[in-house]
Amino acid sequence: MSGDEIMRKYAEAHGYEIGNEQYVCPRPLPCVRDEHGATKGQTVKQHFAKINEELDELKAAVLREVTTRNNLDDLADGVDDDTDTDIAEESADVITAITTLEEVLGIDAEMRDEAQRRVNKKNRKRGRL
User: What is the pLDDT of residues 95-112, one digit of tens each?
Assistant: First the structure.
């Protein structure tokens, strides 16, 4: 992959503009149905349980890789494509579960975007980005 392609993908993932092109980050979509397709309401407790379930799956994916490498520090040097995909998908599942809870609580996409902009600005100011 060329350097330009890497930068384009990074910009796309983070909602930046490059040249005349603007890349918009895909948003996680809240899950409005349960596993049976029903749109019945779930309790906040059930949403927290789903977040915990997805977070546990993410931890398991990362720990599988750590166990394979026998060293957590090696994981910081990157992972192979299969592991990267597993960890990325499990991370996206966690984000989606949290997004679903936010939606249920009345925090819509616009509010989530604005909150993320504030957090990004704060982290940029602190030199973390």
Answer: 999 999 999 999 998 899
